[in-house]
Amino acid sequence: MITNVARGQQVFTSNAFLVTGDRTVLVDAGNEFDAVAEVRDRDVDLDALVLTHTHPDHVGNTESLVEAFDLDVWGFDPAHPLVDHAIADGETVLLGDHSYEALHTPGHKNDHLCFYTPEVEVLFAGDLVFANGSFGRTDLDEGDRDLLVESIEYVRETVSPELAEMHTGHGPSVSQDPYEHIEAALLAAQF
To answer: 87, 102 in Cβ contact below 8 A?
Structure first.
C-alpha cells in the first residue's frame, strides 16, 4: 500500500510516500510537518528512508525520522551528509513488497532518482515529471534543461506504456494513463 503522509499539509514540503509491506519504506521525508507522528499514526515499523533527491523540501524531516525510527537513509549520493547508503542507476531496491529499479535522472538536481517496478507498473517520479505534463524546475542550482529532457526520455523508454500509477514529488499522483503524462512532460520540456 502507498500512502502520502504529507497529504493536506499547508507547508513548504514535498510529498512523502509510505510504502508498506515486506520492507516498509518512506520515499522522501518531506519538510516542515511532523512526519514522525504521521508515520506513527499508521502503526507501522519503518525500515528505511529512500530519497528521490536532496532538495530541502524532500529532506527537511530526515533527522527527526532517523532519530525516531533508527533508520538508514538511502539515496544517490553517499557524500551527502544525510545519505548513509548509495543507490546506483540500475540497482534494485525493495519498497514495500516489490523490487524497484533505480533510474538516475539528473536535470532537476544531480542526485535525482526515480524508482520503477514493472511487477505492478508503479513509478516514483520525484521532481522529474508531474501530473498533466509538468516537469521539474531547472532554474535551481544543478538544474540543466537539456539533461532533464534526456532524463525524461530515459524514464519514458524504461517504463511500460501500461504504467498504472505515477507518484510525484508534488501535486497529485496519477492513476489515469500516467504514461501519457510522461510523454506530455517530455514535449513540454523540449520547448
So the answer is: yes
- The domain over range 2-189 is classified in CATH as 1.10.645.10: no
Cα distances (angstroms) measured from residue 149 to each of 9, 135, 152, 168, 169: 30, 9, 5, 17, 17
Q: Kindly give the pairing relationship between strand 25-27 and strand 17-19.
A: antiparallel
Domains of the chain, residue spans: 2-189
Blockwise average pLDDT, block size 10, the chain, 191 residues:
94 96 97 96 95 98 97 97 98 98 98 98 98 96 97 98 98 97 97 86
Cell of 42: 499508521
Q: Is the dihedral of CA 146, 138, 91, 164 positive or negative?
A: negative
96 in Cβ contact with 22 (< 8 Å):
yes
- Which helix (H) or strand (E) is 59 found in, with range? helix 56-59
Rounded to the nearest 5 percent, the helix, strand and coil shares of the chain are 25, 25, 50
As a whole number of angstroms, the distance between CA 189 and CA 170 comes to 17
